[in-house]
Amino acid sequence: MLWQLQKEKPQMLRTVELIGSHPQFLTLRVLAENKISLMDNLMLVDILYSFLR
């Protein structure tokens, strides 16, 4: 799934560093790490796409 995302949106990968340092991303990452077992693949892909928008 990640490879498909990278293939379709290569220009968005340039913003990964900016996204990773954003305070909201850090908060959501901690929340996701704590709740990852409750998420399915579709939910994770939706979250990734929302970060890239």
Topology:
Blueprint: H1 2-8, H2 16-20, H3 23-35, H4 41-52
Organism: Tetraodon nigroviridis
Protein name: (spotted green pufferfish) hypothetical protein
Q: Would you give an account of this structure?
A:
- This is (spotted green pufferfish) hypothetical protein.
- The mean pLDDT is 74.
- The protein has one domain.
- It has 53 residues and is mainly α.
- The two termini are 17 Å apart.
How many helices? The count is: 4
Radius of gyration over alpha carbons?
12 Å
Number of strands: 0
End-to-end Cα distance? 17 Å
Percent range for β-strand residues: under 5%
Averaged pLDDT: 74
The proportion of residues forming helix, as a percent range, comes to 55-70%
Poorly predicted sequence stretches spanning 5 or more consecutive residues: none
Q: What order do the SSEs take from the amino end to the carboxyl end, as H and E?
A: HHHH
What is the total domain count?
1
Overall form: flat
Content-based structural category: mainly alpha
What characterizes the major β-sheet? none
